[in-house]
Structure formats: structure tokens, C-alpha cells
Amino acid sequence: MQQPIRIGTRESQLALWQAHRVQDLLNAAGHETVLVPIKSEGDIDLVTPLYEIGVTGIFTKTLDVALLSGRIDIAVHSLKDVPTQMPKNIVTGAVLERGPVKDILVYKDDVRWMQQADFVANIATSSTRRKAQWLRRFPQHQLHNLRGNVNTRLQKLADENWNGAIFAAAGLERIGLRPANSIELDWMLPAPAQGAVVAVCREDDKASRHACSTLNHAPTRLCTHIERDFLRALMGGCTTPISAYAYVTTNNIIHFNGEVCSPDGTQTLTVALNAPVADAYDLGKTAADELLAQGARDIVNLSRNAQ
């Protein structure tokens, strides 16, 4: 009798939502599955800012170890948390259809202060990308570190004397926790692969790879590949203020926007490119090369030195 496919996941509510989504799709395709919750290092240390932990794959490496040791057959991640260079012998099984991409501000009272040039708001986020883009627009504001799963961060916002906190829309909406007092930050460019869920497998596990392949959403996989290629070519990680978003237009064109920003928001380089879907695979690297020619490496190094 064939053993059920063991799906590894972090224990947070959002991670479990993502794992259940993969499980439901696999079950619908006729596979028997079981969830295996595993606590990650990123979930254990909720105090140290991510950029100080200094480990790539902080939310993924525990699951990677479980996958490589044979404790699980598939690991489910938020794709934006996955290092651009995956561990040896681990491959992408499927990238699911993308959810909401944008960041949102969850605020207290109202947001009239966003129109007041002399108002000093207190805003919470531990993302260097969000901090940099926020300071570029509101250089007078004070930024505060905010760690933990979405439930913990919402409670922390309620407890602290802050004006608001920045979240990924997908994270709150998927588990039904987006408050009414929130607005989309349409001017904030997202992290590469934000809003996408990935299932990874061992390279030599043909059965799990085949099972996952039916879940793959080709447009999302291509767009997130382009975004992550952009990040990889700039040699950035989750602690570098690098943003990217690619999407397919109605006439089958990939439109790409990318930027690299200094940690304080004072220096920014941006790029926008288009290409037919059939010719877009290397669009991220092409965009990164444009920014590198304009001095992007110096801005990336500023971020590293700031850490």
C-alpha cells in the first residue's frame, strides 16, 4: 500500500493555511496526504530583527533539513522566504497560483496624518524593504521592529503606542484577519515572489515531484522566477531593500518593475521592462544588469554595511 505524502509546514496559522491549500489540491488529484507541522528557527526567536539573525532561509531551513532527512516528502513555503539558491538536492515541485501581491497598512484611528508633512508617525515593520520605501515617502516618521506571526503582530500593534504597521495583504486575507482599518499601499513595490506559495521536493523523489507538478501555475511560476532572478543577480536577500513585481498583461506581455533602495530611503534606482511571455525568462537578469550598470551594487553594499 502506498504511503501518504507527508507535507511539512511551519506551525503558524498562515503557514498551515498554505499547507492545507497544497493538501486540498493533492487530495483533489487523488493523493492521500498527511500534514507534519515543524517549528522553524524564525518562529522561535521573535525578538531579534531578521537582519540581525544573519541566516538565509531562516523560515525554511528547518523544513529543508526534515525534507532531506526523509521525515517529510514535500515542504510548503511562502516563496518570498525561500533563498534564491535552494539547498542541494531540493527542487521546486510547484508554484501555486498567486494571491494578493501588495502591502497594506493597518492603522489606528485614521490616516489623516499621512497628509501632514510635519506629523511624526510611529510605524512598525521588521522588513528593510518596507522601511526603506516608507522612509523615502515619509522621512520624518519613526520605524519600529515588529516580529512574529500575523496574529502576534496584530496584537503587538494593538498594545503599542504606534500609528500603524505594515503587512502583506496575502498574509492577512488568507486567514481572514485583514481589519477594516487597513489600506493598500499601492505605491509600495512588493518583495520578489510576494503572495506566492511554493511546494518543494527532494530531487530524487520522482513520485512527489510528479504529484506536485499538477498543482503548478505556469504564469505565476514564470513571474516569480523573473522576480527572483532579479534579486539573485543583484546578490540581495530578504534583508536587502530590493523590490520586484512581474505580471502578465491581457495581450500576453510580461511587465516588470524592479528597484533597489538604500536602507534610509534616500537613494533609489528603478527599472521597468516589457517582453512577450515567450521571451521573458531572462527578464529579471536583464533588469538587474541595467541597475548594476547604474551603480546598484553600491546601494546593495550600503544595506549590508548598515547591518
UniProtKB/TrEMBL annotation:
Organism encoding this protein:
Chitinophaga parva
Return the broad EC class.
transferase
Task: Give one Pfam hit by family name.
Answer: Porphobil_deamC
> Which Gene Ontology molecular-function terms are recorded?
hydroxymethylbilane synthase activity
The Porphobilinogen deaminase N-terminal domain covers which part of the protein? 5-208
Q: What InterPro entries does the database record attribute to this sequence?
A: HemC, Porphobilin_deaminase_cofac_BS, Porphobilin_deaminase_N, Porphobilinogen_deaminase_C, Porphobilinogen_deaminase_C_sf
Alphabetical GO CC annotations of the entry are: cytoplasm
> Which UniProt keyword terms apply here?
Porphyrin biosynthesis, Transferase
Pathway linked to the protein:
Porphyrin-containing compound metabolism; protoporphyrin-IX biosynthesis; coproporphyrinogen-III from 5-aminolevulinate: step 2/4
Q: Which reaction does it catalyse?
A: 4 porphobilinogen + H2O = hydroxymethylbilane + 4 NH4(+)
Primary role: Tetrapolymerization of the monopyrrole PBG into the hydroxymethylbilane pre-uroporphyrinogen in several discrete steps.
Q: Which Gene3D superfamilies match?
A: Periplasmic binding protein-like II, Porphobilinogen deaminase, C-terminal domain
One biological process GO term for this chain?
heme biosynthetic process
| NCBIfam families (alphabetical) | hemC (TIGR00212)
Instruction: Supply the PANTHER family for this chain.
Output: PORPHOBILINOGEN DEAMINASE
Keyword Protein transport attached: no
Q: State its cofactor.
A: dipyrromethane
- Family per record: Belongs to the HMBS family.
Superkingdom is: Bacteria
Q: What PROSITE patterns is this protein classified in?
A: PORPHOBILINOGEN_DEAM (PS00533)
Which residues are in the Porphobilinogen deaminase C-terminal domain? 222-292
Question: What is known about its subunit structure?
Answer: Monomer.
Its EC number(s): 2.5.1.61
> By its UniProt entry, which CDD domains does this protein fall under?
PBP2_PBGD_2
Per its record, how is this protein called by name? Answer: Hydroxymethylbilane synthase
